[in-house]
Amino acid sequence: MSSNTRHIAFHRDEMLPPQPPPPATTGVLGWMRRNLFSDWFNTLLTFIGLYIIWLIVSWLVKFALLDAVFTGEDRNACLPRDGVEVGACWAYVQARFNQFMDGFYPSAQEWRYLLVYAVGIALLVPLLIPKAPGKTINALLLFVAYPVLAYVLLYGAPSLGLPIVETTQWGGLLLTLVIASVGIVISLPLGIVFALGRRSQLPVLRFLSIAFIEFWRGVPLITVLFMSSVMLPLFLPEDVTLDKVVRPLVGVALFAAAYMAEVVRGGLQAIPKGQYEAAQALGLTYWKMMGLIILPQALKLVIPGIVNTFIGLFKDTSLVSIIGLFDLLGIVQASLADPKWSTPTTASTAYLFLALVYFFFCYGMSRYSIFMERYLHTGHKR
User: Is residue 226 part of a domain?
Assistant: First the structure.
């Protein structure tokens, strides 16, 4: 047989075990290569971004930790020493911390709002855990029984041995959480109702829903707060008075409900028409169709928009300081007028403290939103 017709046969009896991918394509190095250094332009942007982050973080660490003052009795502890500027005046935050948390709530009654926090967290956490049992009872306790208990504890009931604490004494983080919580709890169901009304086949109901949504969306929140504080009492009978805190609660809840309605309406419009037709073919009534088929799908789709509205509402509570309520922002700004703590870094420290508090709550809501999106995603293994 000539060399031109010679063939070499090779037969493999078993497959070779799979080999690991190259180290440069997996793990941290692989992620960095794909996302940060994929080409020269991304590499340049990465180094610019790292430089900006280094400038911010290095200044923040130096101001908030290395050069900061953590203890002191008055402004003298935070004044420049030998011509050298000092960092954050955390001694001022420590001295004012209780006031930042509850405003002018009597110190002897602080256990009442702390108990409200504890009960609220104990009821909220199981409700946020998808696999926790007893969701119906938990929801009834949180949304029906808890508001009554919180009101009695915060405001007082002499018959139960709890002295009255007027709402004018509420302030700080306590007032911020009260306004935000009430606004969030009321705006979601109201928003769903108005979203359904805007898509209703009944002309009167659709017109009223559209008028409500467009009116509240066309007015700035500051105007709403002024109207609820000044104008709302004028429309009430002479013998009826609304508490100074209840007025902005009404305005904030209605304002947020209008935006929530549009978010929910977007989810309703995203549901295919076949879902409606299938529900009607099964003979379901309108409310059963909405409650069992349409709304669960629509609300799942708009979780980011709902949480985004909640976050915006939580931050917008700071506007109530304009109408004379000492929420967290208002009480911090009022404390800056105290000459006892007047230093070059007091204001910067105060606003840094505010930023950390607001970031803590807003970031927590954002991360839970992402968790729920992944948990409710179609095909997710539970």
Answer: yes
pLDDT at position 263 is 94
Lowest mean per-residue pLDDT among 3-7, 17-21, 202-206: 3-7
- Decide which of 3 and 117 is more confident: 117
Q: Is 71 domain-assigned?
A: no
Q: What is the mean pLDDT of residues 117-133?
A: 91
Task: Say which range, 82-86, 98-102, 206-210, 318-322, has the weakest mean pLDDT.
Answer: 82-86
In a domain, 62, yes or no: no
- Cβ-Cβ contacts under 8 Å for 279 (sequence gap 6 or more): 288, 289, 292, 293, 294
- Asked if 154 and 170 count as a contact pair (C-beta separation under 8 A), the reply is yes
Rounded CA separation 145/281 (Å): 39
In a domain, 191, yes or no: yes
- Is 209 a residue whose pLDDT tops 90? yes
Q: Which residues contact 63 (CB under 8 A, 6 or more apart)?
A: 87, 88, 345, 348, 352
Domain residues for the domain of 255 are 90-105+165-376
- Cβ atoms of 146 and 124 closer than 8 Å: no
Q: Comparing C-alpha atoms, which of 113, 106, 124 is closest to residue 153?
A: 113
| 11 class by beta-carbon count within 10 Å (0-12 exposed, 13-18 middle, 19+ buried) | exposed
**What DSSP string runs through 158-189?**
GGGTB----GGGB-HHHHHHHHHHHHHHHHHH
Q: What is the tally of structural domains in the chain?
A: 1
